[in-house]
């Protein structure tokens, strides 16, 4: 008895009864104000960075092609010329002053003039039938052409270059076919996503009826899989034992597949699987009561979602906010990357050619300058990069780092907002004594406004901690990538340990933040106090935490498998044309790649199922913390009644005392 008391005190004292507590506290104040101010100032600086990028950046340098003079195709004086034509598509280098030549109406009346023009790259050496792609003219992949006979041009080289380019441009045909398939099947893809949405919703709502049998079937399925594994490994061991195949005959080898042919491998597998089977059976026997509690909480979560259907569509709000954060960062990064004026230098392929002796190679030049009087063949004023002069250009790297930090911080804050809002809504459900009568009106909207008004700083605090760990992981991955070739085995082992530790730290912080946000939504305290209270509460009930977590993971995994697998099978039979007799309006479209809409439907189904089940998972976690608080705060008396469902009371062997004259009082 004393040991149990000391253990409880090690993880804090149980929550005390508070007669004024009736669910999420409404009379609360702002939390983590300093962090809120820092976050708002950071966002203001993030906006300033975006404005600076907008002023100094020029995304046209990336979005629009430029000719040899630096002018944009399809804009200004070239408004009617939207495409750039590469004279030598192999090197993607265009001739200099081609616009001047075109404006002067250059003609090639004699073979000698043709040769001079080609050598100076005033005209392309050859022309191929082409088609525009992203503002550039690329040769058609199915082009049949005859090479011109020029003594100064190697037809073999050209043929090899064209062959390689045409092979690579097959990707363009694939892209066109992909767009055609999407155009033909987008409607049916939306239908498949609608099916995924309905299946996800039905699965969650029906858990109140089938949670118990479903969990039982899943557990028996796991036991069955392990039992079959034991049987299969034993049969393999018996066959190899009769053959006398032993590891002593094989010896040591780096070919791991060779160990499948020795009896010791399968014997070890039998032992491992048998131990796992035994451990699982013992856990089921000794933890059956906690498994029943977990099932009851899953049923209660299904009821909560059914009472507040708007929570199932809150992930759409989170998705929109995430898209805004990512789009803002992408545009800011693009504008920053294109800040500064383009720089050009003289370039020539053969500096020893006649007329090229006095060319100032690698010095700056102006592609619009018409006074280049050098007679050097192949002389070009080529693009070198963007100028690094100026305050913005010198600080470009720091601004990009600021943008990356802003991206991670805002993304994590948006996810934290969604968790805290949903926790506030579901806590309102649990702490309503008479359900659904006592559930507040518009609980989701109230939780959203309450979270933004009082707890922006707490969410920013938790998001910042997670952001620092994530950026540390990215830096470590970058260092590992750069040093991978020079690492010895010991260095690789140390790097792997560091990466593993940071991965575990990130997982723990996500777990701690999630439960801290639940406590913030209920009690309105700051992040550190909420995280401490949540951690202590969970540690006082660690066995229940593990059981509920694993049962929930198993159930949600099966739900995702059911939704994604069902949509995938239906999509396969429909888009592959294996479903007949549906009528003309329901015929499968004719596709180049029927697997494309199938994979799109499967991916979309997974995203939809993950969104729905993330809400359900948050509901389970919230109700679980409320359930643990309910057990510590109340005792079932008239003054301190339990708020949990009658199923949970029955499993725990507890009951609420009915007031005199109202023995049939129902919750």
What does it look like?
By secondary structure, the protein is mainly alpha-helical. Helix content is 63%, strand content 3%. The protein contains 21 helices and four strands. The strands form two sheets. A two-stranded antiparallel sheet has the order 1-2. Helix 14 (396-430) packs across helix 16 (456-482) and helix 17 packs across helix 18 (527-539). The two termini are 34 Å apart. Mean pLDDT is 76; it is low at 89-112, 149-154 and 663-667.
Task: Give descriptors for this structure.
disordered C terminus; single chain; transmembrane; mainly alpha; antiport; two-stranded antiparallel ribbon; two-stranded antiparallel sheet; transmembrane helix
Gist?
This protein is mainly alpha-helical.
Termini gap: 34 Å
pLDDT average, as an integer? 76
Q: What portion of residues belong to β-strands?
A: under 5%
Q: Share of helix among residues?
A: 55-70%
Summed up, the helix count is 21
Strands, count: 4
**SSE order, one letter for each helix or strand:** HHHHHEEHHHHHHHEEHHHHHHHHH
Largest sheet: 2 strands, antiparallel
- Strand ordering within the main sheet: 1-2
Structural class: mainly alpha
Uncertain stretches: 89-112, 149-154, 663-667
Spatial shape:
globular
Radius of gyration: 34 Å
Please identify the oligomeric state.
single chain
């Amino acid at each position: 008895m004393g040991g149990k008391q000391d253990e409880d005190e090690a993880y804090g004292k149980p929550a005390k009864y508070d007669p004024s507590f009736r669910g999420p506290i409404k009379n609360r104040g702002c939390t983590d104000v300093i962090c809120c101010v820092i976050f708002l100032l950071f966002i203001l600086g993030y906006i300033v960075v975006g404005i600076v990028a907008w002023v100094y950046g020029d995304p046209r340098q990336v979005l629009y092609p430029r000719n040899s003079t630096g002018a944009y195709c399809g804009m200004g004086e070239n408004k009617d010329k939207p495409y750039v034509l590469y004279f030598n598509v192999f090197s993607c280098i265009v001739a200099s002053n081609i616009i001047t030549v075109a404006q002067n109406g250059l003609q090639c009346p004699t073979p000698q003039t043709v040769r001079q023009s080609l050598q100076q790259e005033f005209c392309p050496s050859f022309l191929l039938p082409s088609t525009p792609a992203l503002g550039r003219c690329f040769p058609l992949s199915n082009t049949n052409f005859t090479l011109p006979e020029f003594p100064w041009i190697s037809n073999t080289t050209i043929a090899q270059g064209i062959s390689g380019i045409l092979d690579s441009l097959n990707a363009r045909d694939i892209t066109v076919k992909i767009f055609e398939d999407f155009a033909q099947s987008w409607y049916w893809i939306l239908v498949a996503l609608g099916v995924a949405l309905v299946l996800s919703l039905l699965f969650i709502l029906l858990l109140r009826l089938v949670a118990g049998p479903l969990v039982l079937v899943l557990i028996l399925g796991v036991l069955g899989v392990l039992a079959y594994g034991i049987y299969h490994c034993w049969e393999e061991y018996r066959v190899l034992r009769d053959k006398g195949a032993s590891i002593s005959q094989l010896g040591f080898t780096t070919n791991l597949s060779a160990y499948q042919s020795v009896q010791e491998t399968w014997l070890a597998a039998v032992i491992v699987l048998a131990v796992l089977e035994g451990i699982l059976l013992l856990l089921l026997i000794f933890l059956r009561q906690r498994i029943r509690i977990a099932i009851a909480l899953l049923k209660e979560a299904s009821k909560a979602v059914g009472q507040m259907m708007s929570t199932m569509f809150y992930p759409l709000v989170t998705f929109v906010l995430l898209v805004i954060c990512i789009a803002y960062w992408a545009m800011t990064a693009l504008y920053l990357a294109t800040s500064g004026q383009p720089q050009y230098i003289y370039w020539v392929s053969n500096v020893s050619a006649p007329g090229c002796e006095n060319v100032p190679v690698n010095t700056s030049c102006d592609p619009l300058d018409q006074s280049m009087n050098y007679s050097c063949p192949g002389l070009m004023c080529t693009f070198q990069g963007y100028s690094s002069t100026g305050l913005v250009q010198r600080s470009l790297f720091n601004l990009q780092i600021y943008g990356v930090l802003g991206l991670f911080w805002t993304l994590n804050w948006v996810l934290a907002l969604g968790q805290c809002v949903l926790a506030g809504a579901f806590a309102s459900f649990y702490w309503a004594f008479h359900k659904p009568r006592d559930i507040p009106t518009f609980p989701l909207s109230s939780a959203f406004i309450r979270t933004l008004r009082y707890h922006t700083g707490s969410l920013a605090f938790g998001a910042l901690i997670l952001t620092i760990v994530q950026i540390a992981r990215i830096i470590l991955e970058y260092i590992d990538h750069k040093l991978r070739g020079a690492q010895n085995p010991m260095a690789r082992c140390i790097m792997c340990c560091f990466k593993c530790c940071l991965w575990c730290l990130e997982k723990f912080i996500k777990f701690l933040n999630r439960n801290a946000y639940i406590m913030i939504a209920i009690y309105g305290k700051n992040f550190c106090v909420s995280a401490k209270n949540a951690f202590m509460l969970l540690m006082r009930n660690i066995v229940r935490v593990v059981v509920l977590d694993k049962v929930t993971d198993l159930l949600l995994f099966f739900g995702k498998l059911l939704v994604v697998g069902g949509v995938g099978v239906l999509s396969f039979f429909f888009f592959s044309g294996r479903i007949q007799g549906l009528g003309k309006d329901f015929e499968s479209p004719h596709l180049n790649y029927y697997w494309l809409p199938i994979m799109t439907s499967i991916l979309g189904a997974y995203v939809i199922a993950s969104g729905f089940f993330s809400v359900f998972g948050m509901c389970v976690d919230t109700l679980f913390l409320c359930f643990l608080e309910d057990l510590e705060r109340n005792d079932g008396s008239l003054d301190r009644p339990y708020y949990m469902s009658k199923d949970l009371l029955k499993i725990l062997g507890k009951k609420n005392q009915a007031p005199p004259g109202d023995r049939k009082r129902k919750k």
